[in-house]
Amino acid sequence: MRKFPVLLSTIVAASTITLSTTSISAESTTDLNEKIDALQQQQKQLEEKQGKLQRDTDKTDKKINKNLDKQGSVEKEIHSIDIDLQKTLEQITTKETEISNTNQQIEELGKQIQKLKKEITILKERIAKREGLLKDRLRNIQQNGGSMKYIEVILGSKSFGDFISRSSAVNTIMDQDKSIMEQHEADKITVEKNKVDVENKKSEVEERKQSLQAQKQDLVALKGQLDKQLSKKETLMASLEEEHKELEAYKVSVEEEQEILAQQAEAAEKAKQLAQSQKSELEQLAKEKAEQQAKQEKTKPKSNNHSSSANSSSSSSSNSSGGSAPAPAPAPEQNMGGDMMYPISAPITSHYGTRWGSMHHGTDFGAPIGTPVRSAASGVVIMTNSASQAGMTGYGNVILVSHNINGQSYTTLYAHLNSIGVSQGQTVSAGQVIGASGNTGQSTGPHLHFEVHRGGWNGSKSNSIDPMTVLN
């Protein structure tokens, strides 16, 4: 997934313009015209940057909406998978119940099989006894003549009644023999049938158990597939949510940059208005001076050519010898060779440079909470940010001031403040109290964190320079 850098506050353009520290008398109309032209050009550049940022915001909004649509689609898929997974779990539970019931049936059948085995044993013993009895009777029949003995018994009747009795007895004996044989055969058939039934039931239950086990395995495999699908969708969802957070953060950073550019544009407009005011004032002074000179020329007494020539020569000589007041010398401009003043009266506790494995982009001054913090140079406040506001992560209460020195713009940053005494767009002079030191934001103790940037401040702090190279 594409990662978007979360910008704390993107570039405060290097072209940030502040009020000039040079007095009106030190600048010519030409200088002011050039300054106004430069300011107008910078305003144009700011407008272009703001337009680009607006386009970035629009693109980001589209990406956010697309991301939310994807999240909605994935949520539906996850919901569908959850339903299928729940159904599968219910089916697995059902199969496990059926398998448990089948195991109980197998256990019950085991008991029945044991009972049938006992019955088979009893039947076998009964059959064995009958077989012994039948063998004895067959042996007797063979020894005594078989059916001839029955005839002799009948024929030996002494009367008709005796004949009937003997015939009935013989029939009874023969019926018993027949019954014994039939029961014997029936028991054999029962034994074989019971054996077959037991084996069939056992096989049937085993087959059912195997079938249920196979179905359960299929359901478990299906559950595994659903778990993988769900895991994949949840991973995708987490990725989309992370992307959404980054897009929102990027959008916030762009909006913050737009706000900073708007503040910068306001500062540039104020500087342009001041330059125009200075130009008008300078032009008015020049006009008044010209009118005064013209008036003086008119009031001079007329004389002959010789006198005029002499006076002219005398005047020229007088001027060349310093008779008239010389023009005022231009006020010196600030130089970045140590002309920024210390922002606070406190000892340095940490210098600019690598510290604890990372870059420290400023100088720390250890000071009790409430120590006055002063602007290092004249300029315009382009941003104030409280610890409770988004952006400028870690700085706590912070002030950014832009300066224009010898045509080069600089931005100073004052962080971890306990209080802020200026507002956005306010003009400040060198040494003016702008706040008080504190311990807000990601701070390990009361101190002032002071940064100097050549040009504008940006999230990567790529423009930072060592403050000690410019402090006087």
Observed structural traits:
coiled coil, two-stranded antiparallel ribbon, signal, metalloendopeptidase activity, 13% strand, 472 residues, Cell_wall_metabolism_enzyme, alpha+beta, Glucose Permease (Domain IIA), single chain
Q: How would you describe the overall organization of this protein?
A:
- A hairpin with a 2-residue loop joins strand 7 (397-405) and strand 8.
- The chain is 60% helix and 13% strand.
- It has 472 residues and is an alpha+beta fold.
- The two termini are 49 Å apart.
- The protein has helices at residues 29-144, 147-155, 160-299, 305-320; strands spanning 348-350, 353-355, 358-360, 363-366, 372-374, 379-385, 397-405, 408-420, 427-428, 433-437, 447-454, 464-465.
- Among the domains are: 76-235; 348-469, Glucose Permease (Domain IIA) (Distorted Sandwich), CATH 2.70.70.
- The strands form 2 sheets. Strands 1, 4, 5, 6, 7, 8, 9, 10, 11 and 12 form a 10-stranded antiparallel sheet that branches. A two-stranded antiparallel ribbon has the order 2-3.
- It is built from 4 helices and 12 strands, in the order ααααββββββββββββ.
- Helix 1 (29-144) runs antiparallel to helix 3 (160-299).
